[in-house]
Design goal:
about 450 residues, alpha+beta, Cathepsin D, subunit A, domain 1, Rossmann fold, Dna Ligase, domain 1, 4 domains, 9-stranded mixed sheet, 5-stranded antiparallel sheet, about 25% helix, about 35% strand, globular
Length: about 450
């Protein structure tokens, strides 16, 4: 094809992918990229008439995670693609019909999670070869779309919620994890709301128990709640969750499970009784026999933890016996309950977070502590990456969540010379790191678990 027959397009253009059911998607035109890519998550391969297919979901509009389209396409290839950051990822490749203005042609698209990117689609040079010339100074040469036009195109996709009434019970509506759970619920057709724990209060009465929200409004009609209680308000948050349970509202994690998972000593005792291996741990209340406590866990180096600490706070690595004595004596002066735990040097500042939902590990990542930190402070500036866990680690994670009575849990495991050891079970695990590392929609898995508790099936 000669240059005069090629069409000029801008650096951004609106496209239609009709066979995928996508009426409009804004593409970044990038001649520097060889392959074209579309945002996809929940990517699941399957066989259809002995042919490989793939299903996936997409948020087609920028800055909009409520609009969701489910797609199916034949797999034409699976390739190693190097991203702009230099990371190599093995991606599924599909072929579909692209419409841009009045022009239509088949393009190959690789599937990857582009939630962190500004554009849901990238049009590379292979799709443009012989057809298009890019004028980087222009945009939407092939036709623009305003907000009203986009709204009309998606009117049949964004249907009013007709599912369950689910409330997220937490403290901060702006947290990534809380926003994602609400978005995931709305994507599956549920009526989602946010309840601030501190703005709710209870009427304890045998005949008519009630829960009120700020302004005296009685909270009623809920099918389920998702409690995400920060450690500082565990007592009140668990009491509130228990009251919801008493009036017949389903909860993804019960008050009892949350309470016992927050008690570090009790949770370790439950895990140990169930036969799950944990690092050797000592517990004391303002101990007198400091030397014996240190020797109990194999001596220094060791970890000293305040029983009430969380996410790395109140946790100290004592590298020598003298340092351990100083830390323990300092905590003793506070008249604090404390744990001492053997330090697993061979872990190299790494641990594994397994995200368990409804008795299944739905995602796992390796967390590496920042320079100068150690495993217990892995939350502070840690790097994360997806990891394939062993069958033994998977078994431990599932069993630990079950022992705690948690349907949703973050289970932390450390690899040692003795094999995998369980460190902690978290009843309100964060979603940002695990979703970023794995590219999986973990929030959706939580909503599906709620649906199962409520015996609700999504309407096709």
């Amino acid at each position: 094809m000669t240059t005069t027959k090629k069409k000029i397009i801008g650096s951004e253009e609106w496209c239609k992918l009709g066979k995928l059911g996508i009426p409009a998607i804004k593409a970044r035109v990038d001649s520097g990229a060889k392959t074209s890519t579309i945002h996809a998550y929940n990517i699941r391969p399957y066989q259809k008439d002995a042919v490989k297919w793939v299903s996936f979901e997409i948020h087609p509009l920028q800055n909009d995670r409520k609009t969701i389209i489910r797609c199916d396409a034949k797999v034409v290839d699976r390739r190693d693609i190097k991203s702009s950051s230099g990371a190599v990822e093995r991606r599924y490749v599909i072929k579909t019909l692209l419409t841009m203005g009045k022009f239509r042609w088949d393009v190959e698209l690789t599937l990857t999670n582009r939630d962190s990117m500004g554009y849901r689609m990238l049009l590379g040079r292979e799709a443009m070869k012989g057809r298009l010339i890019v004028d980087p100074a222009e945009k939407f040469i092939m036709g623009g779309l305003n907000k009203e036009a986009i709204k009309k195109l998606y009117v049949n996709i964004n249907k009013p919620a007709s599912g369950l009434k689910i409330a997220l019970l937490a403290s901060n509506p702006k947290l990534y994890s809380n926003q994602r759970i609400i978005e995931a619920g709305e994507q599956r057709g549920h009526n989602m709301s946010f309840l601030n724990i501190k703005q709710c209060y209870m009427k304890v009465n045998a005949e008519a128990p009630e829960i009120h929200n700020r302004g005296g409004k009685i909270i009623s009609g809920l099918n389920a709640i998702v409690p995400r209680i920060k450690p500082a308000i565990t007592f009140y948050g668990a009491a509130l969750t228990r009251h919801f349970e008493s009036i017949g509202v389903k909860t993804i994690n019960t008050a009892q499970a949350i309470t016992q998972s927050r008690d570090k000593l009790f949770s370790l005792q439950l895990l140990q009784q169930s036969g799950i291996e944990i690092p050797t741990t000592g517990f004391a209340s303002s101990p007198i026999d400091t030397d014996d406590l240190i020797n109990m866990v194999g001596g220094a180096p060791l970890i000293v933890k305040l029983l009430e600490g969380t996410q790395g706070t109140g946790v100290v690595l004592a590298e020598t016996k003298k340092a351990a004595e100083s830390v323990i004596n300092a905590f003793k002066s506070l008249k604090a309950n404390l744990l001492v735990q053997e330090f697993i040097k061979e872990s190299g500042g790494e641990d594994i977070r397994c995200f368990v939902v409804n008795g299944r590990v739905v995602g796992s990542m390796k967390r590496t502590a920042a320079a100068g930190e150690f495993r217990a402070n892995v939350h502070k500036g840690a790097s994360v990456e997806s990891i394939k866990i062993t069958p033994e680690e998977r078994k431990i994670a599932v069993k630990a969540a079950k022992v705690m009575g948690l349907d949703v849990a973050g289970v932390d495991i450390i690899r040692s010379n003795k094999g995998p050891l369980l460190l902690e079970v978290n009843s309100s695990p964060g979603l940002e790191g695990i979703e970023e590392a794995t590219g999986k929609d973990i929030a959706r898995e939580i909503i599906i678990a709620i649906e199962k508790k409520c015996n609700w099936k999504i309407k096709s």
